[in-house]
Amino acid sequence: MRILLLEDDRDARDYLVKGLAELGHNVAWESDGKAALRLILTDDFDVLILDRLVPGLDGLTVLRLAREAGCKAPAIILSAMSGIEDRVSGLEGGADDYLVKPFAFAELAARLVALARRLPINDSTPPQTMLRAGDIEMDLVRRTVRRSGKPIDVQPREFSLLEYLMRNANRVVTRTMLLDRVWNFGFDPKTNIVETHISRLRTKLNAGHEGNVIRVVRGSGYILATDEA
Questions:
Q1: How far is CA 187 from CA 9, 19, 178, 191, 205, in A?
Q2: Is the dihedral of CA 60, 66, 72, 76 positive or negative?
Q3: For the domain bounded by 130-224, which CATH number is listed?
Q4: Residues 77, 52: contact at Cβ < 8 Å?
Q5: Which stretches hold the DNA-binding feature (predicted)?
Q6: β-strand partners of 222
Q7: What does CATH list as the number for 2-116?
Q8: Residues of CATH 1.10.10.10 domain(s) within the chain?
């Protein structure tokens, strides 16, 4: 599933992102409520996992505004606020579930499975399983990549890197953004890990084609351009 995680505690966030990714979920995260709301309104998610007490906008306010804007994705509220009134206000505020901190990751995983069972099979906005950017196609279920119909063999990290670039096609993404989203680094490791993976991925994508589909924007970052002119 495509999951949005709002959590401002770095250790908790890294733990959840790692665990959810190991279960095969695609996780986007934010630590600020306002940033999370912007992401919810511009992307499609199957489930929202929202910490209640975060900077910017609190999790319940984010959920309320998302619901008012038409977001129907099931939501789980995470909170150390364990009182009955707190849980009731969370559920009445639009949440489908309320999980009190601290909790076992296995419990969160089980609740996600339960939420997935409630998702309508013939929903008008089914979970996204394919990404397309220009002549590049990515199957998120089979974990395969094709360009102009021809399969491209990519490693797991290259797949994640390309997925992020495709979701942001024709927009500049910085090195810091890639370290943050693809490697889950909250710091600069002072290595050329991004440059190395970009180079390998670009070589694979460019094989048999003219021009660079992944372009360097000097001083800014990288862009996956769908028009290669």
A1: 15, 20, 11, 11, 28
A2: negative
A3: 1.10.10.10
A4: yes
A5: 128-226
A6: 173, 216
A7: 3.40.50.2300
A8: 130-224
